[in-house]
Specification:
By secondary structure, the chain is an alpha/beta fold. The protein folds into 3 domains: about 80 residues, Multidrug-efflux Transporter Regulator, Chain: A, Domain 2; about 80 residues, Methyltransferase, Methionine Synthase (B12-binding Domains), Chain A, domain 1 (Orthogonal Bundle), CATH 1.10.1240; about 130 residues, Cobalamin-binding domain (Rossmann fold, 3-Layer(aba) Sandwich). It contains 12 helices and 8 strands. The strands form 2 sheets. Strands 5-4-6-7-8 form a 5-stranded parallel sheet, sandwiched between helices. The protein has a 3-stranded antiparallel sheet with strand order 1-3-2. Helix 8 runs parallel beside helix 9. The protein starts with 6 loop residues before the first strand and ends in a 10-residue tail after the last helix.
């Protein structure tokens, strides 16, 4: 097959909103191999493969397990993606927040959690709601008070859900937090909850921890994973903090970072970039098997 008719990996990543780390993990674990590889190792895909990877990522972002998705047809995946778009209508929650109706806001969030289940709620309500609130705030279309009310309501239910998600005493441990200066904590709290649903004893430590405190907590708990959320923190500052934190922790601890951080900024042993919450289950499973380094393959 001629390379001229194929799509290089970089273009596939943009089309499917995938990271190199994730696509290589899918290749190893589920056999999603490229159509061709050049002598220098570069990967090439057909247009059909690129579209299927996009649909797989959409469905995975909606909370489905990739191991269940790889057996489905493209039509089935497309139907799931369309259904997910319908489910992600959070307009009535936004309306309640805009009206500063705290009772209705809390009720709507709790009703959706009961209807969707904890995992489904994370992907069908929490993530779309946070994105929508962020977009409206940037456009100056949502009062700051309304944004705060949404954050408080979500945080309350997230923390309750963490307490409800019981894991085995022998489960691997993890911590989730943000660096000093990063006040947006819901990503870290959501990561802790999803990790618990995956059988990891994840502890959410709150936002804005100094790196020395993070390293000490990881050591004290004998954590296998440290999950850091960087949403608004300056990228250069966040990357410098990651380098310092990595140096303070044993190499056996997997450092997972989500948010505005360049995945190839640092080739640090045990550092993994999560392109979204849906990637976390694969990261937890892969890093537990000893494959925790950022993959810089072509």
């Amino acid at each position: 097959m001629s390379e001229e008719k194929l799509i290089p990996l970089d273009e596939v990543l943009r089309h499917a909103s995938l990271t190199r780390n994730l696509i290589h993990a899918w290749e190893r674990r589920y056999g999603l191999k490229p159509a061709a590889r050049a002598p220098n190792g570069r990967r090439f895909y057909t247009a059909e493969q690129a579209e299927r990877l996009r649909l797989l990522k959409r469905a995975a972002d909606a909370g489905w397990r990739i191991g269940e998705l790889v057996e489905l047809s493209d039509d089935a995946l497309a139907a799931m993606a369309a259904a997910d778009e319908r489910e992600q209508d959070v307009g009535e929650i936004i309306d309640a927040a805009s009206a500063l109706d705290t009772d209705r806001l809390a009720a709507l969030i709790r009703v959706r959690k009961r209807a969707e289940g904890t995992r489904g709620w994370l992907f069908a309500t929490v993530i779309p709601l946070l994105r929508r609130v962020g977009d409206l705030w940037q456009q100056s279309r949502l009062p700051i008070a309304a944004e705060h009310l949404v954050s408080l309501a979500l945080k309350r239910v997230l923390l309750e859900s963490l307490e409800e998600a019981v894991v085995d005493d022998t489960a691997p441990r993890a911590i989730a937090t943000t660096f000093e200066g990063e006040l947006h904590e819901l990503g870290a709290a959501s990561a802790a909850l999803l990790a618990r649903l995956e059988g990891v004893d994840a502890r959410y430590l709150g936002p804005c921890l100094p790196i020395g405190e993070i390293a000490a907590a990881a050591s004290r708990l004998n954590a296998s994973h440290v999950m850091i959320s960087c949403i608004t923190l300056d990228r250069a500052v966040a990357e410098a903090q990651l380098v310092k934190l990595r140096a303070l922790m044993p190499q056996g601890i997997c450092l997972v970072v989500g948010g505005a951080v360049d995945p190839h900024a640092s080739d640090l042993e045990g550092l993994v970039r999560a392109g979204g919450l849906a990637e976390l289950p694969d990261i937890l499973a892969t890093s537990r098997s000893g494959q925790s380094k950022i993959i810089n393959e072509p």
